[in-house]
Amino acid sequence: MSQNSIDADLFGRILYEDNHLLVVNKRPGEIVQGDQTGDEPLLEKVRTYIKISAAKPGNVFCGLVHRIDRPVSGAVAFAKTSKALARMNAIVKDRNIEKVYWALVEHAPAKESGTLVHYLLKNERNNKAIVSVNAKEGWQRAELSYQTLAVGEHYTLIEVLLHTGRHHQIRAQLSAIGCPIKGDLKYGARRSNDDGSISLHARSLRFIHPIKKVELCIEAPPFDTLFDNIASSR
Predict the structure, then answer these.
(1) Is 69 labeled as catalytic in the residue annotation?
(2) How many Cβ atoms from other residues are within 10 Å of residue 36's Cβ?
């Protein structure tokens, strides 16, 4: 994308914007930050958008509040000022942000709802989280709550509320209870999705605006219609 043009696709994916924050619905397969692939990251697309839409000369500030994995879709928040970024970083660190995900899993959980607690260790060699039900030295405690929303013919839609933010946490914990996410070969799915994505979507963010001090609840519609098709079967 040229530095003098805005990615037109980005316009339709902006979920929230004011002078301080911008939240975008990330497509599956899109990278949030630059990596070894050299693909243009969402961060740079947003930075260019801010620069052009605000007609700002020179460099513009764009801070990443949090990230989600490349094969995952959904809401990602950016800060447009250093003040907003510092305050959002504190909100995230203090866990005063509610992150809700939707996942399509291959098997329905044994219980319709519940809380999962595991201990995770990142295997750097294969970029995968190893799961244990017992606490071990050097392993990180991971906790989430889930609720079954609908059961489809082949997949089950569950809603996940994160209580901790660990590497591949949702993917690893759901796999550990026999519910691998659709398309997630790394954690036991039967087959991949055609586009290389996994069927995990960052559905919503809820937090107190760092400047305005009002509650925001920002929802991101899934790109894959299978989410909505199964949800509508409730």
Answers:
(1) yes
(2) 5
